[in-house]
Each structure stands twice: as structure tokens, then as C-alpha cells.
Amino acid sequence: MPKFLRIGLHQSNVSGYTSKAWCVRRVGSAVFLKWGAVEVQGAGKGRKVYWTRLPQEKTIRCGTVERAQDYTKSAIARRRSHDYEPLTGAISARCKSANGSADLKQALATILIVDIVGSTAKAAKLGDARWTKVIGLYYAAVRKELKSSRGKEVVTTGDGVLATFKAPAAGINCATAIREAVRTLGLDIRVGLHAGEYTISGGEMVGLAFHICTRVAAKARAGEVLVSRAVKDLLAAQSQIRLRDHGSHQLKGVPARWRLYRVEG
């Protein structure tokens, strides 16, 4: 599995800093992505890299081996041109602090995950240069709406964004605003929202709620904004947001079935 480490202002001979790692693996027509915050200790041949929290994962089903190969090549090329260095060796489990303890704090938030539908086909159609420009405009539009809605960006992927909000209505309104904004770029997105507790550990956010939100987003079709029952229950009674029952769903890797709702309008 090719792995990459964001360099940022640091160089590979610096020890004791936090960064971000990114991994990609292709199996047949599917591409498996893994990314997250890491801590770098040591330098040179003795350098060790540790996940500071459970990495996020995403599966891209490209339909054909050829498309998967193209997606993988493009993903690797983007990382190599965005201040990442190839990383050899394993990324180990989280490194504990010197006293063996962790500074943990619980928090509650509405989580939003948005990604582009059919991004691989779109990128292949437009070519690298035009696609890079479109992606830049896409992220600018997303971040503009996040700022207007007071959302907090947590992490980005090749074409996705994960963010948190203090109120569910703010997250839903931001999602619909993003959907309309990116349509002018010829893009369709899908969005999932879930509300739940997560742990803040060493400045990083960890929790099952993020994984549930990922699964909710995976159930959305192009142009859809889906929310979990937890989000619906937190909406104020006087909220003008209209939700339509989207049925009960089994979310991959998550226990029990989950009632989802589609945002109308």
C-alpha cells in the first residue's frame, strides 16, 4: 500500500511533530483509501510514524480495473504534488504520551460529510488540468458556505469534506447551500449528516459518530442530503426544515438498523 506523509513546514529529518498521512491500495476495480493525523518521532532511518487516532477509510468502486488504475495513479500524483513525501514502513497504532495517559474530552456535534458523485468519470472527462481547477473552485465554494454557517472543517479527501456544527439546522442549511453552489460547476454531491458524541484527544477528533456519518452519506444519491434520526430528533420544533422518511437502513459495519431522512427542498 503506497503511503505518503505531509511535509508542510517540516522536513523528514525533524522529530516530534504532528502531520497527516495518506494511504491508497487498489484491489481489482476497487480503490481503498485511508488517511488521518499522525505523530512523527525520530528522524532518518529511525523515524517512527504513529496514528494519533483511528484513521478514516473510504472505498471507491470504479467499475473497471482500468478506471481503478487511473484513479490510483491520479490520487498518487496529487499527493506527490501537494507537499507529501513517499513514506516507507508501517504506520503504527497511536503513540501514548510520556506519562501513559491521554487528555480526553467528550463533545457533541452535528457531523457533515460531503463528496462528489462520479468524480472519477468527471476527472477522466475533463483531464488533470481542468479537473484540478474545478476541484479548487469546489473547495472554495464548500469553505465559503462552511464559514457562513459557522461550520468547522475537520479533514478533506480528494473530493470530500468532513465538518462539524454546533446545531443540526446549521449543518443542514450548509449542506443544501453547498449543493446549490457546486451545481454551477457542473458537479453533483451527496451529503450525510449525523449527530453524536466524539472524543477530543490530543487535539484530534475520534469516535464512532464519524463512521456512522460516513455510512449515512454512502446511502445518498446524487443531489441528496440524508440525515440520521439523531439529527432529526435534535431539530427544534419550530424548524422550517422539511424531512421525508427515507426508510430503515443497515449501515455497513454499524450495529442495528438506522432510520434515515431526506432533506426536502
UniProtKB/TrEMBL annotation:
GO terms for biological process: cyclic nucleotide biosynthetic process; intracellular signal transduction. Gene3D superfamilies: Nucleotide cyclase. Pfam families: Guanylate_cyc (PF00211). This is Adenylate/guanylate cyclase domain-containing protein. The lineage of its organism: Bacteria, Pseudomonadati, Pseudomonadota, Alphaproteobacteria, Hyphomicrobiales. GO terms for molecular function: adenylate cyclase activity. Residues 110-217 form the Guanylate cyclase domain. It comes from Bradyrhizobium cytisi. InterPro entries: A/G_cyclase, Adenylyl/Guanylyl_Cyclase_3/4, Nucleotide_cyclase.
